[in-house]
Batch of 4 targets.
Target 1
Amino acid sequence: MKNIAVLGSTGSIGRNTLEVVRNLNRNNYPVTVNYISANSNVDLLCEQIKEFKPKAAVIFREDCYKRLKECSLNLGCEVLSGQEGINDISSRDDFELVVNALVGFSGLIPTVKAIKNGKDVALANKESLVAAGQLINFLLKGSKTRLLPIDSEHSAILQCIQGEPLNKIRKLTLTASGGPFREYSKDLFEHVTLEEALKHPNWKMGNKITIDSATLMNKGFEIIEAKWLFGIEVKNIEVLIHPQSVIHSLVEFTDGSVKAQLGVPDMKVPIQYALTYPERVESDFPRLDLALLKHLTFEEPDFDKFECLKLAYEVIKLGGSYPVVLNGSNEAAVDLFLNRKIKFTDIPYLIKSALEKHDNHNKLDLENIIEADTWSRRFVYESASVAT
Ligand code: NDP
Ligand code: MG
């Protein structure tokens, strides 16, 4: 029996995780969900309490606490709120694995806590690795935690390197769909709407990552994520546009052999692999039919058009606290775009301005990381309010 906590259980990854749990329980791989959490979606969290009967549920927003408490009356589930609630369940010892499906910088502290408590982490929250990869890797060295990627590209790489010596990897190729604006010319970017940016061609995901996929910042983040997860130098990690999202990533070895992992674009497969790693369990998830697909195509990314991808590569070279600022300024800029306060093209502009204004520091403890994150968000919100 595996006991787990699902942080962000009401989101896109969280809901898919619970679907995977249903599948595992149907297939004689018993999983119990002891803890769940949401930001404000009380109704869905309450339905999940009824179905999964967790020991406790956390609602992040304090103003939603009373309503959750009322809805879950007589369900035998403890109700907690805020960061304190997340910290409380993170430090309990009656589960072995936490699925971190929180979005943005809010996922960092739970990742750090899980590692300190020696729990396995199934990580969807790539932002914690972007902002604090160095700190997380340092903490992992003294811990029994296994950090298992949920991101489909990194799950693909993990699957390709099973049984292979890491020092025989020559190159990682992260595939990218190219997002909804792959075929747009750069001058059209000025006029793209929120609705267009939210229409991802292949994946149905939360709003923040959908915008990150439209700017290709998501792929920039994934390069940083791959560097920290697999210890591969960034000069050996490349991005390849593959609009069908069927090949999830590739690994080239020193002898010239290339391995790839394929599947329909469905996050349930990488989530299940992280939950059962290194085992594989039966599923009735949709299957790949290559004959039906007929064509798989590839192209180079356009760095001139997708400035966020270029910025991510530059930031990796700079190191220090620049990745924290890349993440924080992006999160603030995407929030402003989602709230129709800025244009699509303001996103890279604001991130670039934050990076230019930032005073780097190389000592990256949690306190400094939080400080750089707070600074970068404030910078973006203030710059945007001056400009509008
Ligand atoms: P969603 O926005 O769909 O879900 C986010 C979850 O976190 C929800 O449960 C939400 O609660 C909760 N949440 C949001 N903000 C906070 C906060 N400040 N404090 C506590 N809880 C919060 O995101 P996704 O599921 O799409 O993405 C989650 C993570 O997974 C991201 O890091 C993303 O990059 C990564 N990822 C996602 C993929 C996907 O297919 N969606 C693919 C690969 C990676 P509520 O519902 O109440 O708002
Ligand atoms: Mg991905």
Note: The longest strand covers residues 31-38.
Target 2
Amino acid sequence: MYRDTYVGNLDAEAAGTTVTIAGWAARIRDQGGVAFVDLRDASGLVQVVIAPDEVPELVDVARSLKREYCLKIIGDVRARPPGTENLDLPTGAVEVAARTVEVLSTAQPLPFQLDDSIETDEQVRLQYRYLDLRRDRMSRNLKARSRAVAAIHNNLDAAGFMEVETPTLIKSTPEGARDVLVPSRHRQGHFYALPQSPQLFKQLLMVAGVDRYYQIARCYRDEDFRADRQIEFTQLDLEGSFWGQDEVLATIESVVSDAVAAVRGEGLSLPLSQMTYAEAIDRFGSDKPDLRFGMEIADLSDVFAASEFNAFASVVEGGGVVRAINIGESESSRSHLDGIIERAKELGAKGLVWMVVEQDGTIRSPVAKFLESGEMDAIRQALSGELGDVLLLVADEHRRASHVLGQLRLDHGRPDGHDDLSFLWVTDFPVFEVADDGGLAPAHHPFTAPRSVEELRDSPETAVAKAYDLVVNGVELGSGSVRIHDPAVQQEVFDILGIAPEEAHQRFGWFLEALRYGTPPHAGFAFGIDRLVSVLQNEPNIREVMPFPKTQTGFDPLTSSPSPVTEDQLAELGIELRPDAEESLEAHPAG
Ligand code: ASP
């Protein structure tokens, strides 16, 4: 027997008992021949005293111990001498006086200190992830994730959902990213794609009569490495038939609230607030507004339409807007404000005008000379400007001005509470957005139902979709929509997207065919498990809550993956490397 209790159970009440415990030597202090070992197991940490003057057989082992040795210890639990209790440690009232210490396995000198307070290079942490995961912070993250996932399973099981697996070697599903491809050996020159999501399979399950589906699904998107994304990640994926938006939202709210309760101890107050996409852009310049602070965008177009400040007046005359935020009392030195102007330009603004509210209610600004006192009053009022406040104004078309101010709002706004969770539904997204090439692309994915088919036909650019996102603290947690269940409408969407009938047939013919067999109306949603847990654990990125993540460039330093394969393996797949791939192999021979 390796143990009869976890160290985390050893509190004052356990004093007087003899226990067998097993774990790792997290810290070792030698005090005049007596070794104090913090023994860590999955439940926590306890102090073990190895005192050769009390137990002479321990003299050799006491000297031989090193950090992270794996030990089995039999000892007596006793109250710590008064004054030496450690209130920071749940087991800090007691210590274990060792009778025997057995080294189950030794450990090499560590590549880094497993101490939460010491910063270690992420590359090294990932290379030795099995050591990194021994740290308290990481083990708490893994536990939180497990509890959240268990709560999701329990909630959906109780609500009558069926868990169904869908394949991971599939024909490509369009979610807007690049596919991860897998070559076929049997059909050389043919490829599977890994699913960007189980989207089309879950819709097939609705056609199949599976009334309520869910799955904790691994998804793969080969995106350019930006911000906080991983090439593989996990979603809760869900779909229901004879359903509309309200039912999806209520289900997801209850699931998320249970997951939050499982991690944080308290669920959410439901229902969550909702805002349309148009309102979110208008008030916060973002389709995922962070509502932990105000700093709303105000419209000053009316004030400037009639003003002497021609640069702004002419923008309004040309159909544009003048919009502004009040970033509050802030540094107002020239160089700081010039920095904000530069930032606005980087964000796509043609320029930015700053204003500072002065003692007498007037405004200091490079454009102040063009403004009458009534106009200054109107500006101050619209932005609730008080002494020392810095106001930032942008004149442009509505979308761009809002976007730039939305970003500046995030640069300067500060959420109050560190732990706060601010959930929000954003609804009524557009069906399409304008792609880089000027054409239309799906704003969500091409299977999303429009609010009205007439609107879709008459003005696809502005048509509104039955699509909704869940946002938390300014981060998009997940998306979903009511789906198109009429094959003719689905075909129309492909037409608008410029997917010719033959191409639609080749890529999605199997799916369009399925829609022709009595498809029930259906709707669904998916949200990122990694993202939810990282927010709940206050972690700065999703890698911290993924057991074995890749670096931001998609590399796994632990296994050195991706890595080259043999000539024979390539030959079996009918693949020959192009010269640029050969060059890349030479540059990274080990993977
Ligand atoms: N498949 C979608 C996604 O991954 C979610 C959905 O529409 O259900 O974002």
Note: Residues 175, 197, 199, 479-481, 524-526 surround aspartic acid (CB under 6 Å).
Target 3
Amino acid sequence: MDKLIIQGGRRLEGTIEISGAKNAALPLMASTILAPGKHVLENVANLKDILTMCELLEKLGARVDRSRLESDGILEIDSADIQSRRAPYELVKTMRASILALGPLYARFGCAEVSFPGGCAIGARPVDLHLKGLEMLGAKISVEHGYIVAEKQDAHANEITFDTVTVTGTENVMMAAALTPGKTVLLNAAQEPEVVDLAEYMIEMGAKIKGAGTERIELAGVESLKPGVHRIMPDRIEAGTYLVAAAITGGELLLKNCNAGHLESVIAKLHEAGVGIEKSEAGLRVWRKGKLRGVDIRTTPYPGFPTDMQAQMMALLSLAESGVSMITETIFENRFQHALELQRMGANIKMEGNRALVTGVKKLSGAKVMATDLRASASLVLAGLASQNTTEVSRVYHLDRGYEKMEEKLNAVGAKIQRAKEA
Ligand code: EPZ
């Protein structure tokens, strides 16, 4: 396993290119199952989770050309010869997002077997709403030996209300409904930009979808879909992470290829905390304006403050020079594990249930810390950048799942990060 060794206390200055969104690429890759033939996806980040999804598609029988992924961010996926409908435990257990194969396999082949994704460090992560949505479209759902088995019985359209806003649940049911005859309406649907990106590609494939990006999505089922070409949206969480990197080091960065429109709630909070952010033709400019102030954060579904930015903001607010911050995590039940590691670096954080009270300290001190999940590892890197002396973040495989070349991008703007093997 790898670790990152971070020499803290260095001001970041320069330009960072933002990569394609992981959480848009994963459903988009799964959607290629819907339409037999050769799909081309552009601006795909070279990430562990993307490679895992490539493996899953190949396991199903698709041909994936990843030869231009590293160099040009291009994936070619030919789904014509998919013959398996089974997403195996060995793959699903390494990446929960494999559940995104369920909807398209069911839609195209009338049957699907996907290993039940387990929980993960941040929560139980149930998929009951995915299954309820498929059942309401006429699927017969059973669970056999740890596998979800979905079989098309009397496929019919329906009006489906999600009890809780679920991003991949909305995406899975959207993909199943696209090939289900009649007009299906999804209510309390996720409004995340990644859902919109998926819908846009599905429309290009011939799906009839209206309302993506709102809580009400309408789909008119079609007979079949055809493959196309799609450029993946920029990663708003990667961009948000680097906004915090500039703020926490007192530096100034220009983020290119990012969409500020996807970050409005994050930008508003950073402004409130005393961080300067300016949208320009060249990109998104961010700098530490003056004193860092404590702010309250409450994570909610898009367009509210994203849960995927909560850990990064906690690192920043640990160094607020005035005011305290109340952070409330409403999406996942166990998403404060980074707080325990930040405390070891000197942060003053008091937790109770899904709330954390952060009182700024003058400085954080470097320490050996351990990453527990993707965004927690990002928050520890950010804290390491701002700390005096050296921080070692272990288990950075978590980081490699969702951040493309993080240490390279940060070192290019003045950080001093070295990757090493853990003893
Ligand atoms: C997506 O996960 C993202 N992953 C997550 O990003 C992100 O944190 C999350 O949405 C919330 O924005 C991908 O898009 C691949 P949910 P997802 O279903 O879809 C409950 C990262 O760091 N729920 O929106 O799995 C669930 O327990 C990752 O990149 C049910 O109860 O999240 C949670 O409390 C982490 N039943 C809430 O809904 C269900 O059937 C939101 O989960 C589904 C979800």
Note: The chain is about 30% helix and 25% strand.
Target 4
Amino acid sequence: MPIQRSSQWYSGTDRNAYIHRAWMRRGLPGHAFDGRPHIAIANTASDLTPCNAHLNEVAESVKQGVYEAGGIPLNLPVVSLGETNVRPTAMLWRNMAAMATEEMLRANPVDGVVLLGGCDKTIPALLMAAASVDLPAVVLPGGPMLSGTFRGVPLGCGTDVWRLSEEVRAGTLSQEDFLSSESSMIRSRGHCNTMGTASTMALVAEALGTTLPGVAGTPAADSRLLQAAHEAGGLVISMVRDGRRPSEFLSRGSFLNAIVALAAIGGSTNAVIHLLAIAGRLGIPLIQDDFDSVGASVPLLVDLQPSGRFLMEDFHRAGGLLAVLREVVDLLDPTALTVTGRPLVEYLDDAQIWDPEVIRSRSDPLQPHAGIAVLYGSLAPTGAVIKPAAASEHLLRHRGRAVVFDSIEDFHARIDDPDLDVDADSVLVLRGCGPKGYPGMPEVANMPLPRKLLEQGVRDMVRICDGRMSGTAYGTVVLHVSPEAAAGGPLGLVRSGDYVILDVPARRLDIDATQEDLASRSPAEAATRAFANPSRGWESLYVSTVQQANTGADLNFLVGASGDQVARESH
Ligand code: FES
């Protein structure tokens, strides 16, 4: 048995080795410390993260796999982020979760790690941590919930909350009927069952090569998830023995494969920020433009909500990610490896589409060009993104009068005012919602439409924001505008009544004003508020060090890796 990292704690006859072994024994036999791999199970299970609450049971199956392969499994509860609960936004805490997980993996006597995540930020945070500590690591996604129905119609988790609440505001659905759908929304354990951020990040993790191929998308309630957990426990032992670390098997090609997958599945725009942050931890050159240049030629093959009809249970039944990737295999980097040590493309030969309604063939795509468009212009000097597949075709080229809101509170206070000067051609602008501005960059960019326009039948408008959009949302929404208003971006200079020009085919986002005019204006209150507020704790650290969305919104001192070495003993 080769000497493991954990042996730095456990081997020897001195006092410190005695202490490390003695406190960990608690029923373990002496040979548990003979140099066999000790495996952390970085576990985001929490009752306050309902999408991940089942992960303790999953962890038990991982443990069985680790034991079977000759290792010692160790449950390591890590910071968990429940998207629906955590205020002001789970994104404020993604980097904290990543930092805390990285540090606890480095500080403890472990040789490898199984990463158990699910809800939106948990898999990105775990991957950022694993990349920076660079221990052999495999992701096990917790899986989506089963499909719910309401009055015989499938209910898409998240997406249908937005849709039904808009129907209430439009007066086409009663409040009573709306509330009666509530208990049908969450049918089982697991994360949101639409192609929201959680589903996207699980599938993107697989396309990156960080999961067992074929596992992502397995419903949380499916017994095959426990089987996969068992296998992941065995796999990480072989990764430790082979020295297969993230820095060894992840490459720029892995990330480009993830971008191809993101486009083909019609995945969440949040994946742009998360993939940029993960690549930043590995020192892999990846820029926002890669999502456009690589993803733009990829066809949309998956008919899932929010841009389509079906749900994740259907996706898994239809063949899952491997069936999608087989259709676009010519766009994939054949050299990009997976956690198994074998290239991702080797797993595609046997993949099949079992339901062509859910997963389309390359010859019959839902849209010939999917992906995420990256826009530049006088309103977004360092970029903004839009998901054309979720937008309205007729709005992709649009010129309209800005109606500006300085904060989400300002927006809520005025959007339904009957006297608000807004029409269907207006462009709603919401600022002060970027990483520094909120702080934390919340998912508010998909602003609800003014009630009076909803009542007229309007269902989409151009919306522009320096925040993010829920992966379960849809519409002609330009988001991640950078620099954000609170960092001095020109979004802070726009005034209601200015004309804004969106031209997605030309990849432009501009304000119809001269540079001299803009230079003469003072930044809005939203541009300065963030720096006045947090004076202590994480918020203070976050606001003073967070980077902009176009590079992944990581903290500037967390970019890169520190490896797994700890220089000093604790006693
Ligand atoms: Fe957890 Fe949607 S709220 S995945």
Note: The longest helix spans residues 223-242.
